[in-house]
Amino acid sequence: MHTGRLRLFPYRIWFGVGVLISLALMATSCVLLTVLAYNTLAQRPANEQVLTPVVPGVNLPSNHLPYYLGALLLCGIFHEFGHAVAAAREDIRVQAAGIFVLGVYPGAFVDLNSADLALVSPARRLRVFCAGVWHNTVLALGAILLLIRPAWLLAPLGYSNASGAVVTWLAAGSVLSGQQGLYRAT
């Protein structure tokens, strides 16, 4: 994994921040899961829940399943890439990496050399272990940025925002033909 050996990027800072963020997220997720368990056992209505588990066919339409599984695969690959880059940066050999499908669940894996991992300091080991969560956090922040700022990011591709509805096609003789305010897209 040559990406982790490039010295052009401040990996020590990158993965150090990843450890801090991962530990904060771990504490937050413990609190959220405890609240979810309590609300579930107290049989609170679904609209009062802090988290809602995604159950395909129940609260996720079945026709969205390919997108959901694709997103899971992308997140898994990005997560394991984080571990692999951190391991390479800490001089831990990556023995194998790949993707798999277990039933319908897609996933990814990275096999690190156990002897190399045992020889590094706990701080270096922690950077490798937290790298996956950190990379998923960065991926989620990037997705949120794409969600809230598509006009700014996609403007070079011709995307425009707040320009109203655009009619791209009208049937011949439609009652809408010639209506004021309707313009044909060019």
From TrEMBL:
Membrane topology per record: Multi-pass membrane protein
Keyword tRNA processing listed: no
Cellular component GO terms, alphabetical: cytoplasm; endomembrane system; membrane
Keywords tagged on the record: Membrane, Transmembrane, Transmembrane helix
Spans through the membrane: 12-38, 65-82, 126-148
GO BP term, example: regulation of response to endoplasmic reticulum stress
A Pfam family of this chain: Peptidase_M50
Signal peptide: none
E.C. designation(s): 3.4.24.85
Subcellular location: Endomembrane system
Domain Peptidase M50 intervals: 68-147
GO molecular function: metalloendopeptidase activity
Main localisation: membrane
Annotated function: Zinc metalloprotease that mediates intramembrane proteolysis of proteins such as ATF6, ATF6B, SREBF1/SREBP1 and SREBF2/SREBP2. Catalyzes the second step in the proteolytic activation of the sterol regulatory element-binding proteins (SREBPs) SREBF1/SREBP1 and SREBF2/SREBP2: cleaves SREBPs within the first transmembrane segment, thereby releasing the N-terminal segment with a portion of the transmembrane segment attached. Mature N-terminal SREBP fragments shuttle to the nucleus and activate gene transcription.
Name of the protein in its database record: Membrane-bound transcription factor site-2 protease
Lineage: Eukaryota, Metazoa, Spiralia, Lophotrochozoa, Platyhelminthes
